[in-house]
Amino acid sequence: MKTFDQPILVTRPYLPSLETYKERLAEVWENQWLTNNGPVLRRFSEKLANYLEMDNGQLSLFVNGTLALEIVFQALGLNEPKDEVEVITTPFTFVATSHALRRVGAVPVYADVNSDTLCMTPESAEKLITEKTKAIVPVHVYGHPCDLDGFEALAKKYDLRLIYDAAHAFGVKVDGQSIGTYGDASMFSFHSTKLFHSVEGGLLTYRKPELKKRLSQLKNFAITSETSCDSVGTNAKMNELSALMGECSLEVIDDLIAHRKAVWETYAEAFEGSKKVKLLARPEKMYGHDITHNYAYCPVLFNDFETRERVYAELQKTNVFARRYFYPLLSDFEPYTTVRGKTPIARQASERVLTLPTYHGLALDDVRAIAQNVLEIL
Ligand code: T4K
After folding, report:
1. Using CA atoms, how far apart are residues 125 and 106, in angstroms rounded to an integer?
2. With CB atoms counted within 10 Å of each terminal CB, which end of the chain scores lower, N or C?
């Protein structure tokens, strides 16, 4: 087995050269404008709209993805009556998805996932709908699209809001269109650990442009004019330095995705035919749609919990720090142990999954060596 000299982490943030970032900073110094809807942020938003082929009036930037979720939940009325609105979501995700719901006073209910994509299914969600259900929050886990048509139909049938946690899905396209065009709204995380980042950051895309004004108010303390504030808002504005980093990342997004695709293919080749480790597939067709993947994560499934734990620990001895995204299930975390809904497939996945290192600077020879280490451990 190869032991690496330097730790190989599950991910590394993309950074432009220091010279480039310093040069770009001059603009901010000249503007003397650091936050509160500054000129760099406004330009970044336009560039994002252009990249996503969406209207800039359907995009809002935030300080992070979690607050973007909280704010859109509030804007869509999931916060009232407090502790009475049920929202169907998945326990197989990062804890922020449920936290954002609880922090606005909504009650999460857990639906089970599809064993291939590990995304929540409309069938499982439908069984949990009650009179209290007001919304569905599926997660495009690892950037895999959910069953978009299935959720659209479900939302329509029961008159529910549909908000996607698309934290992992920046750059994913469905029939050539951004995945952010689906549902009432989608949230993309621009955290440093993501494929695409602005140090910290979050983006909401939404169907109705009327939402933009409300989102802008809510992320700015719900101030509605110089002398009025109409509700309990917060501070969730993205600053100019983050927007600048976002612009730098956007210039290389195609390269970032291309490299992750090469990493994914390298793992796929190494694990092909193995009965002990399975890389989650990235099919070009899903639910009848053409999918352009972003290869944000490289999750593999082992046959059982003990094997996953052994591989996770043994890899660390070779200086490789894979992560158990997403283990434990959210329903095992203290605030969510009493959440309604049974999710045996999600539980199995959580016990068997490991996300392997992938990032722009990871050499393919190193990917082969990591895969070889996994196979030798098995
Ligand atoms: N919904 C979903 C489905 C999400 O996955 C997330 C966030 C959210 C919502 C919320 O979005 P944000 O509010 O975060 O925008 C990380 C991230 O902090 C979190 O953003 C992300 N999901 C989650 C999946 O992963 P940790 O606790 O694993 O981070 P940490 O510090 O252990 O870092 C992971 C690896 O990256 C380590 O090996 C170290 C390395 N790293 C990290 C940072 C920050 C670096 O090399 N450089 C760095 O600057 O949560």
Report:
1. 16
2. N
Q: Can you tell me which atom of ligand 1 is nearest the CA of 69?
A: 9
Residue 32 structure tokens? 């003397």
Atom of ligand 1 nearest to the CA of 11: 36
Query: DSSP readout, 138-202?
Result: -B-GGG----HHHHHHHHHHHT-EEEEE-TT-TT-EETTEEGGGSSSEEEEE--TTSSS-SSS-E
Confidence of residue 174 (pLDDT cuts 50, 70, 90): very high
CB count within 10 Å of CB 239 equals 20
List, for residues 326-338, the tens digit of each pLDDT value.
Answer: 999 999 999 999 9
pTM of the predicted model over 0.85? yes
What number is the average pLDDT over the span 200-208? 98
Write out residues with Cβ below 6 Å of ligand 1: 9-13, 64-66, 93-94, 96-97, 139, 165, 167-168, 189, 191-193, 202, 321, 325
Q: Whose CA is nearest to atom 25 of ligand 1?
A: 193
Give kind and range of the element (H or E) at residue 251: helix 240-251
Q: Which tokens is 331 given?
A: 């329903």
